[in-house]
TrEMBL record:
GO cellular component annotations of the record: early endosome; endosome membrane; Golgi apparatus; plasma membrane; synaptic vesicle
Domain CBS: 595-659, 693-751
Protein family membership: Belongs to the chloride channel (TC 2.A.49) family.
KW Iron-sulfur (keyword) present: no
Protein name per UniProt: Chloride channel protein
Membrane topology: Multi-pass membrane protein
Feature: compositional bias, Polar residues: 1-13
Localization in the cell: Endosome membrane; Membrane
Lineage: superkingdom: Eukaryota
One function term, GO molecular function aspect: ATP binding
Species in which this protein is naturally found: Esox lucius
Entry's transmembrane regions: 79-103, 164-186, 206-226, 266-290, 302-319, 339-361, 381-400, 452-475
Length: 756
């Protein structure tokens, strides 16, 4: 649309380069300090980016026939996409491994230190000890708690109080460092990043959000935030970290750095790599990118996402941060079957997950809105310190809230066996029993199980409440996966008929896993990708049906109270111009109801095809902030000729003033195919800009239903569309006009879509 024929650079005068036939990209790609491809907080033009990439491909194909060197360059260009995926996967996997190792060490640092090597975590410290016994595998002389190290006494009230105080102090220090680094060096490093990633992938520009500083600070502060013990996870932020890696490597290849549409294909694949290392689920990562975050996902991106997720998972496996040859701490394997009657509790878990998701979203959005509209938002450091202090004070007494999220989920997911030392596996060992000692299903529950149950109940309530206030603070924060524990006892009446003697009737870890999937599904509204992620965590095909039942039920229940998941809710809260493909528009309004200008507004800023001077164009650019201008035959007729981008105009005039003699402020700008001979002969010289004119801008009539217009914006990724009647220009509809109208139709504040 925006390209012409290329003139030979040899023997061409400067005037011919600007006014003669040539390729638009040749001078539009020339850098100017104060002119960028797209302004910050603006939307990209997907059709334009696609056109530019097609033109680039055509140029490479033509040149590759001229020499072997050009053919090799063409092959390198074709392989550059796979090289970028390889680099993204390797860096993402490496960073994930470093984050896991650092979190493991710093979480344990709050409770004690390893004397043999201070950089060892508690578990690593006791691995190296020769004095560890099976019964006290978590205790070894090399690992000492702070009270024991300082006072020589590990028992008693004094030691408990000292450990309590130091636990809170470390937590406050970590969170203070995290929020301070974010506030000073990279404000965009806060939060999970997924709402912004979704918005960026839909075509929105947020400069610096995926920059080098954001990558560095997000990685460091993510370790600090998770280690502080706050009720958050690292899964969401790892997607942001991976997309920062993708953006970093895009800058190395002009194919991606100069084309925002191609860049977003890479970012979609990077998001898949991020989920791959967060959950140890490469296939789930690809499906997550497809289902949850990506706006444009061609088949080529699917293959490359798969490759990036594979490389990331392989790199993390090579680092082996947990020492168990697994990608995540809470990987489990179940081998016991489930029974049809268990579908009822699985569905009930889904109902609970949907209700929890609704409660969490409404509570968190209400708190975040209060943060935005009150003094609370002016003191982010104080808020983080207060929430951390409350979390640490309440978390320390309960062993299930004191430990890290990953360790807690790992214990809840794992099944009881003869080698387990958890309180949840404290069953009475009666020496007079005729069965084997490790035949756990037939052994009655001991006091440890009952203690663990009420501690878990308190932990559940605590996590539900504190997560609402934690998610959205000015630190890296992912969503904690709330998981639940089910106590099993196969002597109940309903189990009598279908339990085999001496076999597990109910697998507690399976209920915890299904509950976790249901709660995460209720909060995010994920379905297919969620089930696959949980399947990859367990490695068991037979548990697909329980997971599907819980995920679908949680989505149905949550959707009954509102269609938006947590990420879409935060997009709305922040006013990002995100046009969700899943939203339905059923109102009977027309394009004329939405287009600008309205009756009370000044007329549309337009250019004429042969009567506007360079000075007029420069004044129009200076006085307005529009992305482009319609070109008409004359102001009287308003007959539409085409549409010209603001950036193209700016670059064309700057280039003409530098390279073409005779172009001054009074020069007439011509968008016509032929310039009048009288104009050619007169002084000053005219400026011909026909080739930067888009002669086929997308137009609709004033009576086009808005349902159709919304569909066009969604499927074509339009930036704007012109409204005409019988070829006469009436107005313009931008993406933000569409979003404001949709908000107004849903009785929401239309001015909330004002991030620009």
């Amino acid at each position: 649309v925006l390209t012409g024929d290329r003139a030979s650079s040899t023997g061409a005068t400067p005037s011919e380069e600007i006014n003669g036939p040539g390729n638009l990209m040749d001078f539009l790609d020339e850098p100017f300090p104060d002119v960028s491809t797209y302004e910050d907080f603006h939307t990209i033009d997907w059709l334009r980016e696609k056109s530019r990439d097609t033109d680039r491909h055509r140029k490479i194909t033509t040149k590759s026939r001229e020499s072997y060197w050009e053919l090799i360059k063409g092959l390198l260009d074709a392989w550059s996409g796979w090289v970028v995926m390889l680099l993204i996967g390797m860096l993402t996997g490496t960073l994930a491994g470093v984050i896991d190792l650092a979190v493991d060490w710093m979480t344990d640092l709050k409770e004690g230190v390893c004397l043999s090597a201070f950089y060892y975590s508690h578990e690593q410290c006791c691995w190296t000890s020769n004095e560890t016994t099976f019964d006290d595998r978590d205790k070894c002389p090399q690992w000492q708690k702070w009270a024991e190290l300082m006072t020589g006494n590990s028992e008693g009230a004094g030691a408990y109080v000292l450990n309590y105080f130091l636990y809170i102090s470390w937590a406050l220090l970590f969170s203070f460092l995290a929020v301070s680094l974010v506030r000073v060096f990279a404000p965009y490093a806060c939060g999970s990043g997924i709402p912004e990633i979704k918005t960026i992938l839909s075509g929105f520009i947020i400069r610096g959000y995926l920059g080098k500083w954001t990558l560095l600070i997000k990685t460091v502060t993510l370790v600090l935030a998770v280690s502080s013990g706050l009720s958050l996870g690292k899964e969401g932020p790892l997607v942001h970290v991976a997309c920062c890696c993708g953006n970093l490597f895009c800058s190395l290849f002009s194919k991606y750095s100069k084309n925002e549409g191609k860049r977003r294909e890479v970012l979609s694949a990077a998001a898949a790599a991020g989920v791959s290392v967060a959950f140890g689920a490469p296939i789930g990562g690809v499906l997550f990118s497809l289902e949850e975050v990506s706006y444009y996902f061609p088949l080529k991106t699917l293959w490359r996402s798969f490759f990036a997720a594979l490389v990331a998972a392989f790199t993390l496996r090579a680092i082996n941060p947990f020492g168990n040859s697994r990608l995540v701490l809470f990987y489990v394997e179940y081998h016991t079957p489930w029974y049809m009657a268990e579908l009822v509790p699985f569905i009930l878990l889904g109902v609970f997950g949907g209700l929890w998701g609704t409660l969490f979203i409404r509570g968190n959005i209400a708190w975040c809105r209060r943060r935005k509209t009150t003094l609370l938002g002016k003191y982010p450091v104080l808020e983080v310190i207060v929430i951390t202090g409350i979390t640490a004070v309440l978390a320390f007494p309960n062993p299930y809230t004191r430990r890290s999220t990953s360790e807690l989920i790992s214990e809840l997911f794992n099944d009881c066996g003869a080698l387990e030392s958890s309180q949840l596996c404290d069953y009475v060992n009666n020496p007079n029993m005729s069965r084997r000692v490790d035949d756990i299903p037939d052994r009655p529950a001991g006091p440890g199980v009952y203690t663990a149950l009420w501690q878990l109940a308190l932990a559940l309530v605590f996590k539900i409440v504190i997560t609402i206030f934690t998610f959205g603070m000015k630190i890296p924060s992912g969503l904690f996966i709330p998981s639940m524990m089910a106590y099993h006892h196969h002597d109940w009446i309903i189990f009598k008929n279908w339990c085999r003697p001496g076999a597990d009737c109910v697998t507690p870890g399976l209920y915890a896993m299904v509950g976790a999937a249901a709660c995460l599904g209720g909060v995010t509204r994920m379905t297919v990708s969620l089930v696959v992620i949980m399947f990859e965590l367990t490695g068991g095909l037979e548990y697909i049906v329980p997971l599907m039942a819980a995920a679908v039920t949680s989505k149905w229940v949550a959707d009954a109270f509102g269609k938006e998941g947590i990420y879409e809710s935060h997009i709305q809260l922040n006013g990002y111009p995100y046009l969700d493909v899943r939203d339905e528009f059923t109102h009977r309004t027309l394009a004329t109801d939405v287009m600008r200008p309205r009756r009370s507004e000044p007329p549309l800023a337009v250019l004429t095809q042969d009567s506007t001077t360079v000075e007029d164009v420069e004044a129009l650019i200076k006085d307005t902030d529009y992305n482009g201008f319609p070109v008409v035959v004359s102001r009287e007729s308003e007959r539409l000729i085409g549409f010209v981008q603001r950036r193209d105009l700016t670059l064309a005039i700057k280039t003409a003033r530098q390279k073409q003699d005779g172009v001054v402020s009074s020069s007439v700008v011509y968008f016509t195919e032929d310039t009048p001979q009288a104009a050619e002969a007169c002084d000053p010289q005219p400026l011909k800009l026909r080739r930067i004119l888009n002669l086929s801008p997308f137009t609709v009539t004033d009576h086009t239903p808005m349902e159709t217009v919304v569909d066009i914006f969604r499927k074509l990724g339009l930036r704007q569309c012109l409204v005409t009647r019988s070829g006469r220009l009436l107005g313009i509809i931008t993406k933000k006009d569409v979003l404001r109208h949709m908000a107004q139709m849903m009785n929401q504040d239309p001015e909330s879509i004002m991030f620009n």
